[in-house]
Amino acid sequence: MQRTWTPRVATALAVLAAAAFIYVTAEIMPVGALPAIARDLHVSEAVVGTLLASYALVAAVATMPLVRWTAAWPRRRTLLWTLACLSVSQLISALAPSFEVLAVGRVLCALTHGLMWSVIAPIGVRLVPPSHAGRATMAVYVGTGLALVVGSPLTAAMSELWGWRLAVGAITVASVVVLVAARFALPVMTMTDAVDGVRPRPIGHHRNRPLVVLSVLTLVGVTAHFISYTFIVVILRDVVGVHGAHLAWLLAAYGVAGLTGMAVLARPGDRRPKTAVLGCLAGSSLAFAVLATLGYLSWHTVAVAAVGAVAIVGWGATANAMPPMLQAAAMRHSPEDPDGASGLYVACFQVGIMAGSLTGGLLYQHAGVPAMLSASAGLMLAALACVMISRGLFAVRPATSEK
């Protein structure tokens, strides 16, 4: 029976988007609260920046084993388990007396982060007809955009006004609310093989050449993005020249641009994904190049602030519209096991976050912000060139799903 966009499906997709929102808000919370955490725990800003790298490392290592271990679980149970881990981890982080305990709390969240992203998009795809797979994935990723529009600026503002612990406490409460909503709004989604009493046989995704190439290119692009994004507050302050409360507004504009980009590219992402991804890569490359130029010029004028703000918005629009299209493409390359394909994609995404945040930290400490932005521009251009000459990476084929 063909599934349609019923109110029940829309509600389920909204809950999935809420789960994405709360997970991404928790993941990137140190970006906006970086100065506040550094002051409170008496460590440097660069050390706080390693929270993203360590988080991504744990997520990258844990994703594929957990995807295989939970392969026979109903999809709802898997998602609820990840949300429960998120709630506990945020409680530990909010009460952390030291940087080390904070890092441990984030490890628990990171352990299930990749698993959550491995199942959340496939759950969304299974709720709709195959022809709407890209749009369902994009709907789930709206949560990511909202995390950038609302979550990150809000936690940054709360951290500055009332302390970062209150911000993490708010994330804890929100994650429990989403956990309860997911329990009642989502179908069980028992896996077909599990119903038949057969444990799903692992599929060799490492031998799926298009999927591997797509995942590696994702790694390169994500590395380029996070080299600079890890220190976006520093870029806004030192390059664009925005200070104080205006930082939160520009961070929100970055997120709004990301949401707008996802909405504009929802349909093209289903019909002409390669063209859409190429446009995003070109836009991000240009934004990084402009910001790097402003950084080297080191001019602090109203005109520079305006140009920098436009570049930040362009960066947000293009960088945040890409992940749903890339994950949808990954699942199309393995219609018989979209969760496993999604897991490989997510693992490479997390490696990119780790590599980007570590590289960004080293460049920030030893070469400066302009060099950091230049590295992002160079890597993004390399990804653009590879996608441009590729064949078959974004072929649109109908995807199947478990009922």
UniProtKB/TrEMBL annotation:
Q: Which residues form the Major facilitator superfamily (MFS) profile domain?
A: 12-400
Q: Does the keyword Cell membrane apply?
A: yes
Query: Any transmembrane segments, and where?
Result: 46-67, 79-97, 103-125, 137-156, 162-182, 211-235, 247-265, 277-297, 303-322, 343-365, 371-394
Keyword field:
Cell membrane, Membrane, Transmembrane, Transmembrane helix
Q: How does it sit in the membrane?
A: Multi-pass membrane protein
Query: Where found, per UniProt?
Result: Cell membrane
Superkingdom assignment: Bacteria
Q: Which InterPro entries match?
A: MFS, MFS_dom, MFS_Efflux_Transporters, MFS_trans_sf
Q: What is its main location?
A: membrane
Q: Which PANTHER family match?
A: CHLORAMPHENICOL EFFLUX PUMP RV0191, PURINE EFFLUX PUMP PBUE
Name of the featured protein:
MFS transporter
Which organism is this entry from?
Answer: Mycolicibacterium pallens
Phylogenetic lineage: Bacteria, Bacillati, Actinomycetota, Actinomycetes, Mycobacteriales
